Task: inverse folding
């Protein structure tokens, strides 16, 4: 697939995009973590966010032909230290045949512009798999740095 990055259209995702978002998230988990997601839980989670923007927002990238070729989601974290909100990028995925064509750059530029216009947003954060060197390189090339934090979690399995 050949197209110019300026021909990529970025828009807020809607419920009608849920099937492709579920598919992309399934591929993302398999590609980056060799993890099989529970499709029922994933479908419910994607739908919950698309129905309630207070949880976060999905954006999709469309090819000139109107095909969804990429996605990016962000959620919110309040920082009392900065009296502002961080947007956490998640579920970043670009279809393999559309990679290296500026799709992620277009998605990131769109979300960054929205964040910079919002006086409550103090920054953008993301996490990346430790072994995903290609993604780390991509993020560094776009101004992201490695802060002095490690992400830790205490997940409650089977909670849906």
Result:
């Amino acid at each position: 697939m050949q197209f110019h990055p300026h021909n990529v259209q970025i828009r807020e995702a809607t419920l009608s995009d849920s099937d492709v978002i579920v598919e992309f998230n399934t591929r993302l988990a398999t590609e980056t973590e060799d993890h099989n997601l529970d499709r029922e839980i994933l479908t419910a989670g994607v739908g919950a966010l698309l129905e309630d923007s207070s949880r976060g927002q999905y954006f999709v990238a469309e090819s000139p032909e109107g095909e969804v070729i990429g996605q990016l989601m962000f959620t919110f974290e309040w920082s009392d230290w900065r009296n502002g909100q961080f947007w956490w990028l998640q579920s970043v995925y670009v279809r393999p045949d559309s990679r290296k064509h500026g799709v992620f750059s277009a998605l990131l530029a769109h979300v960054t512009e929205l964040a910079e216009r919002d006086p409550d947003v103090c920054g953008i954060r993301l996490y990346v798999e430790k072994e995903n060197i290609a993604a780390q390189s991509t993020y560094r090339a776009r101004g992201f740095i490695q802060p002095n934090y490690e992400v830790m979690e205490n997940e409650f399995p089977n909670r849906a």
The chain has a mean pLDDT of 93. DSSP finds four helices and five strands in the chain. The first helix runs from residue 18 to 33.
